[in-house]
């Protein structure tokens, strides 16, 4: 089973997923797509000797790189900090085969513009007692599809958007690779 990871940032989740499936008989990370030419995740792809490509807005809007992904024999797509919405042609070509991780407890704190530090700032500003991560199927809306998994962390006095971001990254790195594996096993039955 060949996985593609789409990411826009540093790629710490991509690295954990790559490490998890490195010697796995179940699946391999075969391709990394990124819409930011200077993003750290592209350095990870080079270091790990994994095929990568730059996602250009025009072609992405046109066909979502669907033909290209089929040529690369990609079976499932993992969004790990990818900031662009998934276009309909790609959703149609990969029905319930695209999942995303969101750094908050959906359905709250999701949607357009709700990413990275903006999420944690909103959660802290609203004096929430808990936050967490959500792993969900991708549909035509931002942060909207059926939820596959959630995990929570407590927010204590003195927590800042940065300290919360650290707690969230820890949760992501702990759970995302394992949840992907369980999801793939479920899909192979
Ligand atoms: N959507 C969010 O973007 C961040 C990406 O971090 P990284 O995997 O690039 O380090 C993660 O917190 C993810 O939930």
UniProtKB/TrEMBL annotation:
PROSITE patterns: GART. The keyword Transcription does not apply. The keyword ATP-binding does not apply. InterPro entries: Formyl_transf_N, Formyl_transf_N_sf, GART, GART_AS. It comes from the Bacteria. Keywords: Purine biosynthesis, Transferase. Catalyzes the transfer of a formyl group from 10-formyltetrahydrofolate to 5-phospho-ribosyl-glycinamide (GAR), producing 5-phospho-ribosyl-N-formylglycinamide (FGAR) and tetrahydrofolate. Belongs to the GART family. This is Phosphoribosylglycinamide formyltransferase.
């Amino acid at each position: 089973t060949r996985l593609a990871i789409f990411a826009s940032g540093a790629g710490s989740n991509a690295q954990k997923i790559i490490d998890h499936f490195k010697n796995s008989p179940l699946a391999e990370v075969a391709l990394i797509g990124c819409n930011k030419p200077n993003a750290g995740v592209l350095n990870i792809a080079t270091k790990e000797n994994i095929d990568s490509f730059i996602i250009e807005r025009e072609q992405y809007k046109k066909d979502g790189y669907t033909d290209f992904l089929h040529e690369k024999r990609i079976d499932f797509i993992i969004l790990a900090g990818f900031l662009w919405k998934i276009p309909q042609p790609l959703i149609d070509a990969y029905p319930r085969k695209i999942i995303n991780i969101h750094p908050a407890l959906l359905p709250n704190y999701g949607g357009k513009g709700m990413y990275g530090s903006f999420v944690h700032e909103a959660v802290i500003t609203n004096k929430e007692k808990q936050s967490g991560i959500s792993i969900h199927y991708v549909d035509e809306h931002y942060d909207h599809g059926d939820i596959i998994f959630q995990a929570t962390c407590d927010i204590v006095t003195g927590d800042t958007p940065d300290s919360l971001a650290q707690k969230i990254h820890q949760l992501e790195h702990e759970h995302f690779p394992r949840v992907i594996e369980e999801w793939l096993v479920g899909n192979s039955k």
